[in-house]
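Q: Got a minute? One more chain.
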Amino acid sequence: QVRLLESGGGSVQAGDSLRLSCTPSGRIFRRNVVGWFRQSPGKERQFVAAIHWKPGSAGSPYYADSVKGRFTVSSDNANNTVYLQMDSLKPEDTAIYYCATGFVRTVTFRREYDYWGQGTQVTVSS
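A: Always. Here it is, folded:
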């Protein structure tokens, strides 16, 4: 079973930046989107950002309103990696961040994603 491997989480101060990375452990044959979701204690997992996976070209990005203008999702097709650059972090960004992929029609619907990572903790203190 292919898994997604995330890295880059940590504890930072408000206003700082972090970059998360997501790489599959093996080859995934059928996927068109890589998404990022986050989950805080007691809350449902929510959509953060996504990018269309297009080998050889840059995919279209999508963002939740809460992170638009602060987070940037990008793909490095040569290294089979997707990044989530998080700038101007706020305490409300504190959560476990998950990357996911699959053949997705609606990027915000977590149930459409077939593969998930184990999550990486991001903690932002004020």
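A: The longest strand covers residues 95-102.
Q: Perfect, thanks.
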